[in-house]
Specification:
alpha/beta; 8-stranded mixed β-sheet; 12 strands; elongated
Length: about 500
């Protein structure tokens, strides 16, 4: 009941992270005298999957029939109950033969695998067993045969046959592969995890201290530590026939003395407590008959994060682009329609290829259009100049008409227009040069005005200086005259 109140209080106040950080501080004080010399040796550094996950020297597993006795694994014992595990990292390609040697030397009856081979596009463990049934894989002196595979909802149970070629001996090793546990996360439902644990217990592979099972994930500390904590806590409750003697925090500290960093996140620590409490609910249902659920309701949990974008996500389609050429032709068609009153055909425009300008080719297209427009303008000017008033015939509506048949006023209008076009042709370059000359003249004019203003200011400053000097001299002269007058008057008065 104490554990139920504690979980609800931590959920309500959101204190799981501070509690987990305090657990880290207590762990540091507890493992100050622990050493990791074998793991840090130069010849063993390449045998570690992670630089910061290293086994302690006093509890590490030592290989007996190998030139190098090192492997990244520790013996982990739970105090007070018959529980002894081997917690190891997920094997590397170069350490698979050492992994099977460790299993063979310790007579391990089972392997409990809590990770998938690839997670988040990263290899978390090398496949150290044959995937298909009746297949055989070879790792050094060991041949592994996949005898059978049993598929469950969240896990897989495989029966493997290990053949030690040096002696010819064969042994059966069960593999319990839990596939519904995300990296640095937790399973969605503790019930499936407890069912997984119950199936392992039914195979009687957790109770022999001399032949401990091998438990591993990727690093061999997060999910593996969570499994050991839940199994040890439920074993203590079964031994004492009461959940009151179980303290998950102190139990985890004792397990951390054997391997560094068991349980990596506050979320995993919370899941371990919830799984333990759910296991208590199954072992002692009479104690929880007044409580509907040992955990919070669904509406109290935060909403899930949105799905991450992966490489398989298809980007949104690009908007359709209309080429400059097509826009120009559409404008020409509108002009033609307004001038003639006829509709243009849609067949040609529908069959026309749309030019993609995303590669920067629009500059070349603009240059081609400008050159073509310039050529067309020159041709039009030539045609206008060549089509003089002396033309004897013109085609109108497909009929040949003499110039004398045209109304005189209309002919005069055409003549005046042709004269204006021939006398004043459009010249963009001349207009630009005129604008430039005008701009230069205006700028020169502004500079002259500014120069005149500066000279005027200087002249006024000189005049003011002269006037101030003259007034100063007058002031001195008046003062001298006044003083001399006073002196003369005094002299007369005293004499």
């Amino acid at each position: 009941m104490f554990l139920l109140d504690e979980i609800r209080e931590y959920d309500r106040s959101m204190r799981w992270n501070p509690v987990f950080q305090m657990l880290h501080l207590d762990t540091r004080q507890m493992i100050e005298d622990k050493t990791q010399k074998a793991a840090r040796a130069p010849q063993n550094r390449s045998l570690n999957r992670y630089r910061d996950v290293l086994p302690y020297d006093d509890t590490r597993v030592k290989l007996e029939t190998s030139d190098n006795d090192y492997i990244n694994a520790n013996f982990v014992e739970s105090p007070g109950v018959k529980r002894r595990y081997i917690l190891a990292q997920g094997p590397l390609q170069s350490t698979c033969k050492d992994f099977w040697r460790m299993i063979w030397e310790n007579h391990s009856p089972a392997i409990i695998m809590l990770n998938r081979i690839v997670e988040k596009n990263m290899v978390k463990c090398h496949p150290y067993w044959p995937m298909g049934e009746d297949e055989i894989s070879e790792f050094g002196e060991f041949e592994i045969e996949n005898r059978s595979t049993q598929m469950e909802d969240a896990y897989i149970i495989r029966e493997l046959i290990v053949h030690y070629k040096k002696t010819g001996e064969r042994r059966k090793v069960l593999q319990f592969h839990y596939v519904a546990w995300p990296d640095f996360g937790v399973p969605q439902d503790p019930e499936t995890f407890l069912q997984f644990l119950e199936d392992i217990k039914k195979k009687d592979v957790l109770y022999n201290i001399n032949n401990p099972p091998v438990i591993h994930c990727s690093a061999g500390i997060g999910r593996s530590g969570t499994f050991c904590l839940v199994d040890s806590a439920l074993a203590i409750a079964e031994r004492d026939d009461t959940p009151t003697n179980v303290n998950p925090r102190s139990l985890l500290l004792s397990l951390r003395k054997c391997r560094c960093g068991l349980i990596q996140t506050a979320e995993q620590y919370r899941f371990a407590n919830v799984a333990i409490l759910t296991g208590f609910h199954h072992l002692f249902p009479h104690l929880f008959k007044d409580f509907e659920s040992p955990v919070l309701e669904d509406n109290d949990t935060p909403p899930p994060l949105p799905p991450r974008r992966t490489k398989n996500n298809v980007p949104p389609p690009k908007p359709e682009r209309t080429s400059i050429a097509k826009t120009h032709e559409a404008d020409q068609a509108k002009l033609f329609q307004s001038a003639t009153g006829l509709e243009s055909s849609d067949e040609d425009s529908s069959e026309e290829e749309i030019i993609d300008l995303s590669d920067g080719s629009y500059t070349e297209l603009i240059e081609e259009e400008s050159s073509s427009e310039g050529d067309s303008n020159e041709e039009k000017a030539k045609q206008t100049s060549n089509s003089s008033v002396d033309a004897s015939r013109s085609e109108v509506d497909g009929n040949v008409v003499n110039e004398n048949d045209i109304h005189p006023e209309v002919w005069e209008t055409v003549e005046r227009r042709s004269e204006r076009k021939s006398e004043s042709p459009v010249n963009i370059g001349s207009k630009a040069s005129e604008n430039k000359e005008l701009h230069l003249r205006q700028r020169k004019k502004r500079l002259l005005e500014t120069k005149e203003r500066v000279q005027t200011i200087k002249r006024k400053m000189k005049e003011s200086e002269k006037s101030s000097t003259l007034s100063y001299l007058l002031y001195i002269g008046a003062t001298i005259g006044l003083c001399s007058g006073l002196c003369f008057a005094a002299y007369k008065y005293l004499g």
